[in-house]
Amino acid sequence: MEANRQIVRTAGIVGGATLLSRVAGLVRDQVTAAFFGDGPAAAAFMVAFRIPNLLRRLLAEGALTVAFVPVFTHTLTTGGPEAARSLFRKMLTLLTLTLVLVCFLGHVFAPQVTALLAPGFGRDPGQMDLTVRLTRFLFPYIFFMGLGALFMGALNAGGFFAAPALGPVMGNLGVIAAAFVLTARLSPPILALAAGVLVGGFLHLAIQLPSLGRMGLKPRPDFRFRDPAVRKILVTMAPAALGAAVYQLSVFINTILASLLPGGSIPWLYYADRLMQFPLGVFTMAIGSAALPALSRLAASGDRAGFLASAHFALALSFFITAPAMAGLMALADPLVAFLFERGEFTRAGTLGTAQALKAYALGLPFLSGSGILARIFYSRHDTRTPTLVAAASLALGLMAALALMGPLKHQGLALASSLSSLANFLWLYIILARRERDFPRGRLAAEIAGYFALAVLMGAAVRPLSGWALAAPGFTALAGRTLASVAAGAGLYFGLALLTRRPRKTKSE
């Protein structure tokens, strides 16, 4: 089926560009760990960065993208390029004004926001003051990333995927450069990371401008907001914010609760989440970015059979990739964290704490990925209500689980609660989709998912003994070699078994 082949081609482009971004992101996190470890300054930066980063997910990459892309695609398909350009200019103007206001309010109310979101920092006035200072410094980041998300949505709808996917590469390079150049020149040194975030945000925005020009979308103000398409996007954005960012909200809640736990909990959760973002960014976001425009076009054209076939294909592909990622992260968590972060200010205690969180987060990886694909299936049909209600219920369940588990399991309990929330979110969305779409191949998809998990469990059991072998390495070079060899062995085993069992299978429509 052509739509499925298009999803694969586009996911390959986005995945390749995002792979570069995630590699740069890992280097950025390694630099952060080496310079600042898991101490109070690192925790202050991570809390301060969570605030604008969450707003970016909610207002920009979350709500805006999922609300804008289907409407923009429909406008481009039915109204032509000029109507799409007009809609883009109106949304750009409205978003710019909104983001300026958000940045101003963030600067003014930074003390109150920080006290609310990191209550445990009240025990150390110096750490609280540093967090407030960093929060004010970082709030303009959402301005760059918000506009960048609008640019990305328009470019993806128009078939341009490489430049938006490469934007985060520039952002990560900005942080890395600032850490090396500015750490010794600023006081406190952690301000270097904040400066790098802002430089990276600007570069993330700037790299997309040439592609916008080729698409004919020149950024110009247009204050004619009384447009039915603009109204539809705005009405859709509010519920889409929650539905698209349920995992980020869960991680954000974990940060708040972790501020009440022993020192080191926030950085351990942060570094574990960053490792989780590697497979999510490279594969899941690539599939989701490719699937949303394709599904939106099929929905707009009324091709129901093609829509359901592509929805099934995207879900199956997501689990085919994330099931082994889950097993590999759980089996090799300790040597992976040691290889990537254990140097400089990041000690063995940090490795153990981060690995504990990573194992718990990894349990929910396939369901987090599947939930993202399912949400896009609903969004492509302009249904934001269903994912929003499901996300709210999942968050409530996750919060109750976090409160119950943080006592006995500390920070690992918080990570496990996030995985339970992702599982609930996926199951509810899947059941609703299957009930609404009687022709959806739910039986075949369930069998495929079960097969992928079976192969992943076999792979995880096979490579688990390699974890101790890698940790016993006599030096960093040997640790790196053994860890990478273990990862390669696991990947080769999984995909070899998948080839032997003829997975993933092609659907009849293909």
Describe the structure.
With 510 residues, the protein is mainly alpha-helical. The protein has one domain (2-500). The protein has 19 helices and no strands. Helix 1 runs antiparallel to helix 12, helix 7 (162-182) runs antiparallel to helix 8 (191-206) and helix 15 (348-362) packs across helix 17. The protein starts with a helix and ends in a 10-residue tail after the last helix. Residues 503-510 have low confidence and may be disordered.
The largest sheet, given as strand count, sense and whether it forms a barrel, is: none
Order of helices and strands: HHHHHHHHHHHHHHHHHHH
**What is the chains' assembly state?**
single chain
Strand content: under 5%
Shape: globular
Termini gap: 4 Å
- Structural class of the helix and strand makeup? mainly alpha
Total strands: the figure is: 0
| CA-based gyration radius | 22 Å
Helix content: over 70%
